[in-house]
């Protein structure tokens, strides 16, 4: 468990799939104790995705949320972005 993180969540997972083919474009798992650095990495995968605000993701993680916290379809780029805390 990451220091200061409530509950038993241990991982932040970011998954980007192609909307049309369903194929995985990116899948990243980051230990919550490295989440600040990990969010910088994650921002490279989804910096322009409409509706994904990495500050909101960080607030959810710090508040102890678990499960899927972001589920966004980016029609322009044909990407489906999902962010989980597990």
Describe the overall structure.
By secondary structure, the protein is an alpha+beta fold. It is built from two helices and four strands, in the order ββααββ. It has helices spanning 35-45, 54-62, and strands at residues 11-18, 24-31, 67-74, 79-85. The chain has a four-stranded antiparallel sheet with strand order 2-1-4-3, covered by helices on one side.
Task: Please summarize what this structure is.
The chain is of the alpha+beta class.
User: How does the major sheet shape up?
Assistant: 4 strands, antiparallel
Between the first and last Cα atoms, what is the distance in angstroms? 11 Å
Q: What's the tally of helices?
A: 2
Helix and strand element order: EEHHEE
Structural topology:
Layout (H helix, E strand, L loop, with lengths): L10 E8 L5 E8 L3 H11 L8 H9 L4 E8 L4 E7 L1
Antiparallel strand pairs: 1-2, 1-4, 3-4
Features:
single chain; four-stranded antiparallel β-sheet; about 25% helix; alpha+beta; about 90 residues; about 35% strand; elongated
């Amino acid at each position: 468990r990451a220091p200061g993180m409530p509950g038993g969540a241990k991982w932040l997972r970011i998954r980007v799939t192609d909307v049309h083919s369903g194929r995985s474009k990116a899948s990243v798992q980051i230990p919550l104790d490295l989440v600040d650095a990990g969010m910088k990495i994650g921002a490279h995968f989804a910096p322009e995705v409409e509706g994904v605000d990495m500050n909101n993701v960080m607030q959810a993680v710090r508040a102890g949320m678990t499960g899927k916290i972001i589920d966004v379809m980016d029609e322009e780029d044909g990407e489906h972005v999902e962010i989980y805390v597990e």
